[in-house]
Specification:
binds S-adenosylmethionine; about 350 residues; 16 helices; Arc Repressor Mutant, subunit A; 2 domains; alpha/beta
């Protein structure tokens, strides 16, 4: 409906002011494991309350609210999972992402939103010591453990996109590797790929565990420390820069990209995965909204547009850049060629 035909409504204001209630409810539903219980076949309030050890009244109100939010269905008083809830919120699913709340709702991330007035006045986070980009910030261990499930799909899609499954020798540098899944997927696809993962030492422990579990640890090594200080070595065919540039301002990114350029072999590629905002900076809604998280939690980070990323890469010697969608994820990749 066009804005002129629509009656004025306070609905958006009311919903937005109360949005914290949605956050608390989904967190509680995950903690009580309601989605798993329904997936197991418990569809009535009585069965769900018994399985999740709650009161029947509490479970009825919780489940009805989850129906209103479209996380559950309700037919003849019986509750069911939607397609998305079955795939992502039932703990038995391989694509379960419920533990992402460990990072997304961690005090470090939520504290940044405590005083948005001050962050807007300042133009950056008011969390002491530079917020999430403080050296060895423990929140990144939570990211590595909690967000790996959300990054598993993009990691698989990128490895496939790169078309490197032919067994050629491949040297890969994974900058800010975290859980390590982006490099590990490449190592799984190409038995001659050697991966070097760079991150803070406590975070790399998680990457090493994952490499071990994936059976690629013999071709997996690590570089501990800041990406701005550590010597990368050289001769890399691929450098992975996933979800990293958005923490910093363009000139800091360019300092890093100069190092990356020098570390690449001739013809090497950088893969940048980001929440890329359209040039209008207000669409698509989820990637464009990511700027707000950067304002709240970093001194100068942002959700960059493709033209901004392109400029950073061109200013640091890269020959050309391609933007690709990565469906069904909300993110996009930029491939930059040396
Ligand atoms: C948003 S996470 C992205 C992790 C992973 N690349 C991904 O896409 O899922 C940011 C990562 O950057 C790391 N990090 C932050 N500052 C860093 C720095 N100066 N040098 C190296 N890693 C850093 C954090 O430890 C964390 O693992």
């Amino acid at each position: 409906m066009s804005d002129q035909l629509r009656q004025p409504s306070p609905e958006l204001f009311f919903e937005t002011v109360n949005a914290y209630q949605r956050t608390a409810t989904i967190k509680a539903a995950l903690e009580l494991d309601v989605f798993t219980a329904i997936g197991e076949g418990r569809r009535t309030i009585q069965a769900l309350a018994a399985r999740c050890e709650t009161s029947e009244r509490g479970m009825r109100i919780l489940c009805d609210y989850l129906v209103i939010l479209s996380f559950l269905t309700k037919v003849n008083g019986q509750y069911g999972l939607t397609q998305d809830s079955a795939l992502f919120l039932d703990r038995r699913s391989e694509a379960y992402i419920g533990n992402a709340t460990e990072f997304l709702l961690s005090p470090m991330i939520m504290d940044g939103f405590e005083d948005i007035v001050a962050a807007v006045r300042k133009g950056g986070t008011v969390i002491p010591e530079d917020g999430t980009v403080a050296p060895e910030n423990p929140v990144w261990v939570k990211f590595a453990r909690g967000m790996a499930s959300m990054m598993a799909l993009p990691a698989k899609l990128i490895a496939k996109f790169l078309d490197i499954g032919d067994g050629r020798n491949l040297k890969v540098l994974d900058i800010a590797a975290s859980h390590g899944l982006f490099g590990i997927e490449i190592a799984l696809l190409n038995p001659n790929a050697e991966v070097v993962a760079l991150d803070w030492p406590n975070v790399l422990e998680v990457a090493k565990e994952n490499a071990q579990n994936a059976g690629v640890s013999e071709r997996y090594s690590t570089l501990e420390g800041s990406a701005f200080d550590v010597n990368y070595g050289n001769g890399y065919d691929i450098v992975l820069l996933t979800n990293f540039l958005h923490h910093f301002d363009p000139s800091t990114c360019e300092g890093l990209l100069k190092k990356v350029h020098a570390s690449l072999a001739a013809g090497g590629r950088v893969v940048t995965l980001e929440m890329v905002a359209n040039e209008d900076r207000v669409s698509p809604p989820i990637p464009a909204s990511f700027s707000m998280i950067m304002l709240a939690s970093t001194p100068r980070g942002d959700a960059y547009t493709f033209s901004e990323l392109q400029r950073m890469f061109e200013n640091t010697g890269f020959l050309h850049n391609e933007l690709h969608q990565l469906p069904p994820t909300m993110q996009r990749i930029v491939i930059s060629h040396k």
